[in-house]
């Protein structure tokens, strides 16, 4: 059945693939990304959702490291920390809060948040705020699943492994060199990197009727990397 979906961070990479595949499945998909809407800003977020009306499916994909690289903790400023929290956990909070009222009215909703393997372990690039914010998304997923399940709303999370999905991840991959790349591949059970389609597949399951009794889960889609 056709649903109204919102995919955040849909300008490229994983978000674009998710939006494309939900549209191919027959849903009406609203794509949102910077600079059109700053989802870390609650007023801008509320105005966006008010403009499109009720939403059945929300995919919280917006986030990332906002251009930051590793620094020792003592060099991290309040602004650096806040920028990553804004892009990741605050955007997730603002968007989820915006869609819940209409989902409760319909007694049906699907919320999926794209976290990261860094939220279950550590940031391979050493960005403290990123790992912490991604972990917070997982905790938020559990809490919302507990709160919203009685209203017919499921809330789940995906923790992707290393996905070559945009210029930033491509640059990161190239920086490892051949030895570093081999080490990463050898630590993945399937011996391959992930693709955006792998994440979109998991989103399609979590947003379908087939997952109606699955909520509060964080699924690692990482080729088995988390086994090691």
Textual characterization of the structure:
With 228 residues, the chain is an alpha/beta fold. The protein has one domain (4-163, 195-223): 3-Layer(aba) Sandwich (Rossmann fold), CATH 3.40.50.720. The protein has seven helices and six strands. A six-stranded parallel β-sheet has the order 2-1-3-4-5-6, sandwiched between helices. It is globular, with a radius of gyration of 17 Å. 43% of the residues are buried.
The CATH architecture designation is: 3-Layer(aba) Sandwich
The helix-and-strand class reads: alpha/beta
Our estimate of the beta-strand percent is 5-15%
Q: Mind describing the biggest β-sheet?
A: 6 strands, parallel
- Which radius of gyration do the C-alpha atoms yield? 17 Å
Q: In the CATH hierarchy, what is the class?
A: Alpha Beta
How many helices? The count is 7
């Amino acid at each position: 059945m056709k649903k109204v979906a919102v995919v955040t961070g849909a300008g490229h990479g994983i978000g674009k693939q998710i939006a494309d595949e939900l549209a191919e499945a027959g849903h009406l998909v609203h794509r949102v990304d910077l600079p059109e809407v700053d989802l870390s800003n609650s007023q801008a977020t509320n105005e966006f959702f008010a403009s499109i009306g009720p939403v059945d499916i929300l995919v919280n994909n917006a986030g990332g490291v906002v251009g930051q690289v590793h620094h020792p903790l003592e060099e991290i400023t309040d602004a650096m920390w806040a920028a990553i929290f804004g892009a990741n956990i605050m955007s997730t909070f603002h968007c989820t809060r915006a869609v819940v009222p209409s989902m409760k009215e319909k007694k049906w909703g699907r919320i999926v948040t794209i976290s990261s393997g860094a939220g279950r372990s550590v940031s391979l690039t050493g960005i403290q705020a990123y790992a912490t914010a991604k972990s917070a998304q997982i905790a938020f997923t559990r809490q919302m699943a507990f709160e919203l399940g009685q209203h017919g709303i499921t809330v789940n999370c995906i923790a992707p492994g290393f996905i070559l999905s945009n210029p930033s991840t491509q640059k990161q991959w190239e920086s490892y060199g051949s030895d570093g790349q081999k080490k990463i591949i050898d630590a993945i059970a399937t011996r391959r990197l992930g693709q955006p389609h792998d994440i979109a597949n998991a989103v399609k399951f979590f947003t379908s009727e087939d997952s109606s009794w699955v909520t509060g889960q964080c699924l690692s889609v990482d080729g088995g990397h988390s086994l090691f």
